[in-house]
Amino acid sequence: MNIKVLTHRIRLSDGHVMADYIRALSENEADEISASLRRGEYDTDEYAVRIRRSPKSRHAIDVELAPEGEFIGSPRGFW
């Protein structure tokens, strides 16, 4: 069985959103991955990983971008 949990990888420096996925071997594993994503367990210092959402502006609900000015020259917001 080929299962993909569809995600967005969000760059915290500027809010850039990239489509991605995580492979799962079973429906149970896909459910576990989804729960882990909701808990933020796939996040790093540079990226937040969330279950794919549309429109992209919905990521602002639970993703906090780096403070403005910390990354000089980076646009702000989700794009």
Keywords:
alpha+beta, 28% strand, elongated, 79 residues
Protein described:
The mean pLDDT is 83. This protein is 15% helix and 28% strand. The termini are far apart. The protein has a three-stranded antiparallel sheet. The protein has one domain (3-59). The protein is built from one helix and three strands, in the order E-E-H-E. The protein has one helix at 27-38, and strands spanning 3-11, 17-24, 47-51. The chain has 79 residues and is α+β, with helices and mostly antiparallel strands. The longest helix is centred in the middle third of the chain and has 12 residues, at 27-38.
- Which shape, going by the Cα principal axes? elongated
Q: What percent of residues adopt helix (DSSP H or I)? A: 10-25%
Order of helical and strand elements: EEHE
How many DSSP E strands?
Answer: 3
Task: Indicate the topology.
Elements: E1 3-11, E2 17-24, H1 27-38, E3 47-51
Antiparallel strand pairs: 1-2, 1-3
Give a short synopsis of this structure.
The protein is of the alpha+beta class and 79 residues long. The chain contains one helix and three strands; from the N terminus they run E-E-H-E. Helix content is 15%, strand content 28%.
